[in-house]
Design a protein that fits this description.
The chain is built from twelve helices and no strands. It is mainly alpha-helical and 271 residues long. It has four domains: 4-96, MazG-like (Helix Hairpins, Orthogonal Bundle); 98-144, no CATH class; 151-218, MazG-like (Helix Hairpins, Orthogonal Bundle), CATH 1.10.287; 221-270. The protein is globular. The N and C termini lie far apart (52 Å). The mean pLDDT is 90.
C-alpha cells in the first residue's frame, strides 16, 4: 500500500515532469521557492497562535510540500533526494540524544543542554570540513547562524551562542540599564540629525531589547506579534467609537484621538 508521503513525492515528480508537468512548477528554482517556504512557515505559526488545529493540519501540509519541492529540485540535479533529507534528520536526532538512544546518562535538562552544545560544536566543525564553499576565515562560535533569519531571531541566536562561552550579562536587570544607555545614544543621534547614527543606534536598541527578552525567557517575535494584535484591536475599537458618534478618525483632533485610545486600552484590559 502506498503511503501518503510516497504519493506526495510521486505527485511532485509529475508536476516537475519536463514534458507533461505544470509550466509554473517546472520553472521554479531553489531561489524562487524561498518566499513561499518562508510564507508557509509563518502561516504555520499563525495557525498555532490562533489555536486552529484544522488550519494547522493544512499549513503543515503546505510546509511539507515545500520540503518535497526543494528536495525534488535537488534530486533532479543529482545532489540528494527526500529520503536523504529524512535519513539525515533521523541520524541527527539519534546522534544528539545519546542519553536516549545510547549509553550516556543525563539526569537534568541542564546536563542535556551542555552535552547538546558539545555535539553541535563538533557537527559545525565537521560541516565546515565538508563544505563546498572555500573559506580562509578562522572557525568561530558564531558560525552557521543563518543570515536569512528574521533579524530579531538572529540577534537572539547570536547572543545565545556568545553566552555559551561566557560572554553574557549575569541577569536581566543589567540589560535594562544597557537598553536605557542605548536609548540615550539614540536621543543624541536624533538631536544631531545624524541619519547614519540614528539607524545604528536604533539597531543597538533593538539588539539590546532582544538580549533582555532572552534573559527574561520571552520570545521577542511572539511579544511583538501580541503587541500588534493589541494595537489592531484597540485601533478598531477607536474606529467603532468614532462611527457611533457619527464621525471618522480623520475628523478628530489629536486630543480626541488620544481620548479614544485611552478608552480603547481600558476596554481591552477589561475584556
Amino acid at each position: 500500500m502506498t503511503s501518503p508521503i510516497q504519493t506526495l513525492i510521486r505527485l511532485m515528480v509529475q508536476l516537475r515532469d519536463p514534458d507533461n508537468g505544470c509550466p509554473w512548477d517546472k520553472a521554479q528554482t531553489y531561489e524562487s521557492i524561498i518566499p513561499f517556504t518562508v510564507e508557509e512557515t509563518y502561516e504555520v505559526a499563525d495557525a498555532i497562535e490562533r489555536k486552529d488545529l484544522a488550519a494547522l493540519k493544512d499549513e503543515l501540509g503546505d510546509l511539507l510540500f515545500q520540503v518535497i519541492f526543494l528536495s525534488r529540485i535537488a534530486e533532479e540535479q543529482g545532489a540528494f533526494k527526500f529520503d536523504d533529507v529524512a535519513q539525515a534528520i533521523c541520524d541527527k536526532l539519534v546522534r544528539r540524544h545519546p542519553h536516549v538512544f545510547g549509553d550516556e546518562l543525563h539526569t537534568s535538562p541542564e546536563a542535556v543542554v551542555h552535552a547538546w552544545e558539545g555535539l553541535k560544536a563538533k557537527e559545525r566543525a565537521d560541516k565546515r570540513a565538508r563544505s563546498d564553499v572555500a573559506t580562509d576565515a578562522a572557525p568561530s562560535a558564531l558560525d552557521d547562524i543563518a543570515t536569512a533569519l528574521p533579524a530579531m531571531m538572529r540577534a537572539r541566536k547570536l547572543q545565545s551562542r556568545a553566552a555559551r562561552i561566557g560572554f553574557d550579562w549575569p541577569s536581566a536587570e543589567p540589560v535594562l540599564d544597557k537598553i536605557e544607555e542605548e536609548v540615550a545614544e539614540l536621543r543624541e543621534a536624533v538631536e544631531k540629525k545624524d541619519s547614519a547614527a540614528l539607524q545604528a543606534e536604533f539597531g543597538d536598541v533593538l539588539f539590546s531589547c532582544a538580549n533582555f527578552a532572552r534573559h527574561a525567557k520571552i520570545d521577542p517575535e511572539w511579544a511583538l506579534r501580541g503587541a500588534n494584535q493589541r494595537f489592531e484591536a484597540r485601533f478598531k475599537h477607536m474606529e467603532d467609537a468614532a462611527r457611533e458618534g457619527g464621525r471618522q478618525l480623520l475628523e478628530l483632533t489629536t486630543a480626541e484621538l488620544d481620548s479614544l485610545w485611552q478608552a480603547a486600552k481600558q476596554f481591552d484590559r477589561s475584556s
